Amino acid sequence: MSSRLFAISFDAQQPERLARFWAGVLGLERTDDAYDGVALLSGNDAGYRLGFRPSPARKAGQNRLHFDLTSSSPEDQQETVARALDLGARHTDVGQGPDASHVVLADPEGNEFCVIEPGNDFLAGCGRIGALACDGSQAVGCFWGKALGWPLVWDQDEETAIQSPDGGTKITWGGPPLMPDPGKDLHFDLAPDGDQQAEVERLLSLGAKRVDSAHGGDGAVLLTDPDGNEFRVLTG
């Protein structure tokens, strides 16, 4: 048994509006796949979607997860920043300092993301969404590698990273200390390759914890990873 990463999902007070923002920034198309919210095709070799699920929660702190967008040239970086600002993003300070070569922005609902300078070797060939950068432990990076069947491509000084065997977006964890859980954040939606309950049991054996034994309205099962981040296992 295994799961594939079906979607990286935003908690959104206005899912349609937030989906339009990210579609505009990244040039993505909406998909009509069955989903509890709005979904965009990421167009990334890692094969996931961007999901926007309705949530009444308000942002209370810096997200533990954020996207790093790549640039092919200084002009491309500037154009991405300008396009995002025109669509409703704003500059934000997460402690990057005045000399940072990357640009930190927040989308219309306050979700932070970075537009990385050109020439970043670690993100070379990963696509426009070069990385999902996460605040998290080495243990949680190993958990997600086993959960998704993605090999570790970095494991040093308590920092880890995994990547699909097909390439595309890397998922990285920066090691301790962990920021407080902001509640409203980005989350993983997993699609099991077979029986949902069998996959839930496998994930529990890897270190996940069950949030609620009942299924949600869409049949998804809600779990947390070893760092306490919520994720969903969808119906097969």
From TrEMBL:
The VOC domain, residue ranges: 125-236
CDD domains per UniProt: VOC
Pfam families registered for this protein in UniProt: Glyoxalase_6
Record-given protein name: VOC family protein
